[in-house]
Amino acid sequence: MLRVRAQKSGHVVVLYLRGQIVVGDTDNLHRTVKEVSNASMLILDLARVSRIDAHGLGVLIELRNQLSAKGIELRLINVTKLVRQVLQITNLDSIFEGTTETHPFATEAEPATKREDSGEFVLVS
Fold it and tell me: Is the entire prediction scored with pTM above 0.85?
């Protein structure tokens, strides 16, 4: 299941994604993006995305096109190695030119530690 958490600062909205961007799991992302208003930039933080499939890539392209038509810039940050490889293999890394490692507004917003025994991530307040 893909979880989406939004944070807004001025005209910038950051969506923190957690899980997989795959067929059957993107409704929550669509719904959240649809609710974004009065923004000039939407940032997708992919630090906790474990997998993306062809459908997920299509969703990213669709969202980029929809937002661009509204004058909203879409950026990807904290792209995991796996997702970055998929973007490179499909030549979609050139479409998402705004892809960066981090963004000043988005860093440190959702710290996490990894439980060594279970391998799961736990949010730290």
Answer: no
